[in-house]
Design a protein that fits this description.
It contains 2 helices and 13 strands. It has 186 residues and is mainly beta.
């Protein structure tokens, strides 16, 4: 097996930690192997890779999702720095609806987070100069690009305390609460 796949408190969300082989020259890692993940029950066809850079610590991106039929599974990894990565279940009727999983991903810990369709996704940068790469199973569609407010009190996400409010995009600062969204997944 090329990666360790771990369950989280919400079974549909998984932590994937690729194996890393090091020597005096550095390291080698097979960071994604479709066959190995399929053997672990994760059989997804990723069609697009996205990369983001955040200059400042305290940058918050999310909480985002794409509605059907353009819903996306995501496999997120942090290439530089560290983030708190969050997945929120918005599958109506799910026993974990409205609950979230928060996992620290960093260049050092080599972990990845698998966020399936039907979940909000967002992250907060814990260091400056953060680069995040994520694979998705559907192409970007502006018409299906949706989100929920990062600070929705009904979600009760315990974001790390900062010296100042998080840095948000104009779009993310105006996102609605979960209770104001239609049931896209159910």
């Amino acid at each position: 097996m090329s990666a360790l796949v771990e369950a989280t408190a919400i079974p549909a969300v998984k932590i994937v930690t690729p194996r890393k082989f090091g020597d005096a020259r550095g390291f080698f890692s097979e960071v994604h192997n479709r066959h190995a993940l399929a053997a672990e029950g994760v059989d997804l066809d990723f069609v697009q890779d996205n990369q983001s850079y955040s200059a400042e610590m305290g940058t918050l991106r999310g909480l985002h999702f794409q509605s059907p039929p353009m819903a996306q599974d995501k496999l997120i990894r942090c290439l530089r720095g560290a983030i708190l990565d969050v997945a929120v279940d918005i599958r109506t009727g799910s026993p974990t609806y409205g609950r979230h999983v928060a996992v620290e991903l960093s260049a050092d810990n080599w972990r990845q987070l698998l966020v399936p369709k039907g979940f909000l996704h967002g992250f907060l940068t814990l260091t400056p100069d953060v680069e995040v790469l994520y694979k998705v199973t559907a192409h970007y569609s502006a018409a299906h690009d949706m989100g929920v407010a990062w600070d929705d009190p009904d979600l009760a996400i315990a974001w790390p305390k900062l010296d100042r409010p998080p840095i948000l995009s104009d779009k993310d600062a105006k996102l609605p609460r979960l209770r104001d969204l239609p049931a896209y997944f159910g």
